[in-house]
Specification:
By secondary structure, the protein is an all-alpha fold. The chain has one domain (13-139): Four Helix Bundle (Hemerythrin (Met), subunit A) (Up-down Bundle), CATH 1.20.120. The protein is built from 4 helices and no strands.
Length: 140
């Protein structure tokens, strides 16, 4: 299963939406690297790249939440930590296996793509809505 950015993932915050599109692109690159001859090194490099971008994105999201004094920031950060742990587990899985196995790809689909969709549609959308609500009340 490839990840796809569609209208159900739009939060209304241009920066966050652009970063989500980039994140989905990086997830798809990871899946592509798994299809190319079971190349362990390519999968590890791509997973590292995904991990770096994920950290960049989470830092930007958390900074935005601090700036707007988002009340759910603690829970949001905890959700980000869950994905960081998943990426660490995927690294371990790649190290233990001879390459990106079907089980590895299944874990990417289940624990990265599904997590991301749920996270964007719930947590990230609520941040964007809070920011928009707060911005509207400040203009009154």
């Amino acid at each position: 299963m490839r990840a796809e950015f569609d209208e159900t993932l739009v939060t209304g915050n241009e920066m966050i939406d652009a970063q989500h599109q980039e994140l989905i692109d990086k997830i798809n690159k990871l899946l592509d690297s798994c299809e190319i001859g079971n190349d362990k090194l390519a999968a590890i490099k791509t997973l590292d790249y995904l991990a770096e971008y994920t950290d960049f994105h989470f830092t930007a999201e958390e900074k935005l939440q601090e700036e707007i004094e988002y009340p759910g920031i603690k829970e949001h950060k905890a959700e980000h930590e869950k994905l960081r742990r998943v990426v660490d587990e995927l690294h371990e899985m790649l190290e233990e296996e001879e390459g990106p196995t079907d089980a590895f790809v299944e874990q990417v689909n289940k624990n990265v793509i599904e997590w991301l969709y749920t996270h964007i549609k719930g947590f990230d959308r609520s941040v964007a809505e809070y920011k928009n609500m707060r911005g509207s009340s400040e203009r009154l």
